[in-house]
Amino acid sequence: MRFDESRRLRERAHAMIPGGAHTYAKGDDQYPEDAPGFIVRGAGAHVWDVDGNSFVEYGMGLRAVTLGHGYAPVVDAVMRALPHGSNFTRPAAIEVEAAERLLGLVGRHDGAMVKFAKHGSDATTAAVKLARAHTGRDMVAICTDHPFFSTDDWFIGATPMPGGVPGTVRALTAGFRYNDVSSVSEVFAAHPGRIAAIVMEAETTTAPAPGFLAAVRRLCDEHGALLVIDETLTGFRWHDRGAQAVHDVTGDLAVYGKAMGNGFAISALVGRPDVMELGGLRHDRERVFLLSTTHGAETHALAAAIAVMDVYAAEPVIETLYRQGARLAAGVTEAAARHGVSDHFGVLGRDCNLIYYTKDASGERSQPFRTLFLQELITGGIIAPSFSISFAHTDADVDRTIEVVDAALGVYAKALDAGSVDGLLRGRPVAPVFRPYN
């Protein structure tokens, strides 16, 4: 497998684009040196790079492409919308239809309202702004065990990569631990009367402990804070109505994105009408400038979202994600056991959204061992920064993946026996996105 054109393009990209890519998670530092640098097309669960190499892909556009690349019903809906214009000086009629469809799908029966945007970051930041306006408070508390909420300062300032975020802004974000009710209580106690919102996912790779989410809901109510549930990843994947439906918890505000457009740029903020209306016209309180963007309601993106919702209503999408993810998890787990590396490599999370962990010979999480595993997967024609499955992954795709994982873990076992990836890893290891220095 050769990557000659990728290497040439990489030099041009880094000369013009900071980091060489417009999304950090897609950058060169996240992949082995022998990796496809640039993708030119995708179909279903397969992609092709500029050098003509083909791969089965997981992660699928940072988990935004749940139905598959180029999924015909979604593409057809977008193509029908495009000839009629994508943006006008007044709202498009499709905005009302899309709002009704989304509110019906997520099962909000409290008169909930919705605003569309392009990215999950836009919507979570809007939720924070609304919470501050509604409560008259300035601080937010985030779950520090959840990896990402926004590109904006209120979140980035709390990461190990806070460059450019003023200290006064950083001080307005506090943290708590998942499945640790006492840490949530401590946040409220440490900042009495200042927490406007708790921002968290209902679940990521770890399931909520019994009673944890109910306790968070209760603490928010007791302290007058809003509960913001980020469904950017879990919506359209855990359940048709998201992780809130799975765990019987309802956020005052909830954010959806990624899979709701199957790769087209669309997100949504959904929430209580008394809070959401602060960004509207039917109230006498101070106005909130809420999600007003030029491209926030492009007709083709809304058409894509409606088409996605049509597919979810007609096809067993969620069931397929769980079924195929379970097949993949079982095969990977068996391969790890066969090579005697189960204590050092495995999968985590729900079958619909698996990740894997890589540990070195001492049992510590290891970026060099992660790189080695990625390298061997790519050599076998698999791109898998995670094992996030899609509706497009066939039995043959999963079976092929398990075969490649089996071979990769054979190399992994050799590295564990040697106590190092030296001599097996070609090039430098990958690095965390959130790091203060290169």
Automatic annotation (TrEMBL):
It comes from Catenuloplanes nepalensis. The keyword Isomerase applies. Its EC number is 5.4.3.8. Pfam families: Aminotran_3. GO terms for molecular function: glutamate-1-semialdehyde 2,1-aminomutase activity. This is Glutamate-1-semialdehyde 2,1-aminomutase. Belongs to the class-III pyridoxal-phosphate-dependent aminotransferase family. SUPFAM superfamilies: PLP-dependent transferases. Keywords: Isomerase, Pyridoxal phosphate.
